[in-house]
Design goal:
- The protein is of the alpha+beta class and about 160 residues long.
- The chain contains 2 helices and 7 strands, in the order ααβββββββ.
- It has helices at about 5-35, 40-70, and strands spanning about 80-95, 100, 110, 115, 120-125, 135-140, 145-150.
Length: about 160
């Protein structure tokens, strides 16, 4: 199964980065606005400092897990991909995964998974079709561990 590199860029990097910049910009705006006002009551502190900080933390918690992998796409290109063969040890949903579009899937929209293969974690656009114990070949970007394609049809010994 192949995963479109442009989907990783758009949904996994550009949208979370834009969200991060937007939310931090709003938080900074509100904090500066609070610091410029003379109002210092409890409600002013909550409105001017606490709410922007809490909102920023909530939005950051939604973007940082994805950016942990995709931020490397700023310098990694598909031509730098490497291949590896290994056994799937664990499959788990990626925390706060963006929605990706994969043309081969039934509905097209999928969520990312973190798949552990021979002790290493990889970021898959989707793990549909994978099972623990499958022997697979992955093509991935070495720094980010983002998988561009995987295949197990030619040498899977668990069927």
């Amino acid at each position: 199964m192949e995963f479109p590199y442009n989907q990783y860029l758009r949904s996994g990097l550009y949208i979370p980065l834009a969200t991060l910049v937007f939310v931090l910009g709003i938080a900074v705006f509100w904090i500066i606005k609070y610091l410029k006002t003379k109002e210092r009551g409890l409600w002013a502190v909550v409105k001017g400092l606490v709410i922007p900080i809490i909102a920023s933390i909530l939005f950051l918690s939604g973007t940082l897990p994805t950016l942990r992998y995709t931020i490397f796409l700023l310098k990694e290109k598909p031509e730098e991909s490497v291949q590896s063969i290994g056994e799937v040890e664990r499959i788990e949903d990626a925390i706060s995964s963006p929605r990706y579009y994969v043309p081969d899937e039934d509905k097209g929209i999928v969520r990312a998974s973190i798949v552990r293969i021979d002790g290493n974690s990889y970021y898959f656009m989707t793990s549909n079709g994978l099972k623990i114990g499958d022997l697979i070949e992955v093509t991935y970007l070495p720094e980010s561990r983002i998988v561009l394609s995987w295949d197990h049809s030619s040498f899977n010994y668990h069927e």
